[in-house]
Design brief:
alpha+beta; OB fold (Dihydrolipoamide Acetyltransferase, E2P); five-stranded antiparallel β-sheet; three-stranded antiparallel β-sheet; 7 helices; 10 strands; elongated
Length: about 280
């Protein structure tokens, strides 16, 4: 596999708060124990309580990770688009974290150094931080992507077999007529339930994808997805599976998966629909 292809592979960004804390504290503890046990970079020459001094580096790692996981997505929302997050984005994120940790480690050692007889340069601390943290993290990224890809692909195959079984078992039903009323109340869009494919949110508008004469077309309506969801509540086969999408589960052709997420495919439609991580997959059946 080419390096460029690997860098462009989808990758999950940590979005859950509990996982942010778990990862941050785990890496902080790893750094602390690594330095305490192996004592590289002249740590054995430190005069005084090494455990207290080295604890500072672990705390710095925890605080930097928590800040970057929580603050950066809010500051740079376009870069931190979780539906488009890739391995290359994750590596850039890691490099930023390492640079911040290196700078704070340098300042900590320079001004709060606990009995440390040597005062090293910033470049020295960058090299230390990279050598301790970067390679293990890149290996973790590689292993995580490989594991999640295989796991999600296996789950997708299992769900696909159930979807095909459900389609074979159910009789064709055109369903009821669906009427969507826009925010202004002046625009009405009517369609058969069986022809609705999915609905995509686009800010204060929604794009409705539907089948007509064997083709998939779309209609842009001035309405929020939340409003449409309320109007479509009586239709049990039309569900919201993502913050930006509502789908007709009877139109689902198959499901695919990669390391980042699962995606829905529809017959005759090139666009795929992501599935939210928190969405129960069994509701697709």
């Amino acid at each position: 596999m080419k390096l460029v292809d690997w860098l462009n592979k989808p990758y999950p960004f940590v979005a859950e708060i509990k996982n942010k804390f778990l990862i941050s504290f785990s890496f902080g503890l790893f750094i602390y124990l690594f330095l305490l046990i192996f004592q590289p970079f002249d740590i054995d020459e430190i005069i005084g309580s090494k455990s207290i001094y080295l604890l500072g580096f672990g705390i710095i790692t925890i605080l930097v990770l928590l800040f970057n996981y929580s603050a950066l997505p809010a500051i740079f929302p376009k870069f931190f688009d979780l539906d488009k997050w890739k391995i290359k984005n994750q590596i850039v994120f890691i490099l930023v974290v390492i640079a911040e940790i290196a700078l704070l480690n340098f300042l900590y050692n320079s001004y709060v150094g606990y009995g440390n007889p040597q005062q090293h340069s910033l470049i020295y601390f960058v090299l230390i931080t990279v050598s301790v943290g970067f390679i293990p993290v890149i290996m973790l990224v590689f292993i995580t992507e490989l594991f999640l890809s295989k796991k999600h692909q296996k789950t997708a195959l299992e769900i696909n077999s159930k979807i095909q079984f459900e389609k074979a078992s159910n009789k064709i039903d055109n369903g009821s007529a669906i009427e969507i009323i826009s925010e202004s109340k002046s625009e009405h869009f009517t369609i058969s339930e069986s022809d609705l494919v999915f609905i995509k949110s686009e800010d204060n508008y929604c794009k409705v994808y539907f089948r007509t004469k064997g083709e998939i077309k779309n209609q842009l309506l001035r309405i929020t997805l939340k409003n449409i969801e309320a109007q479509l509540k009586p239709f049990q086969d039309i569900i919201r599976n993502h913050r930006s999408y509502i789908v007709n589960k009877k139109q689902i052709l198959k499901i695919s998966g990669n390391a980042r997420a699962y995606y829905l495919h529809f017959d005759g439609c090139e666009e795929t629909v992501p599935i939210s991580r928190s969405f129960p997959k069994e509701q697709l059946l």
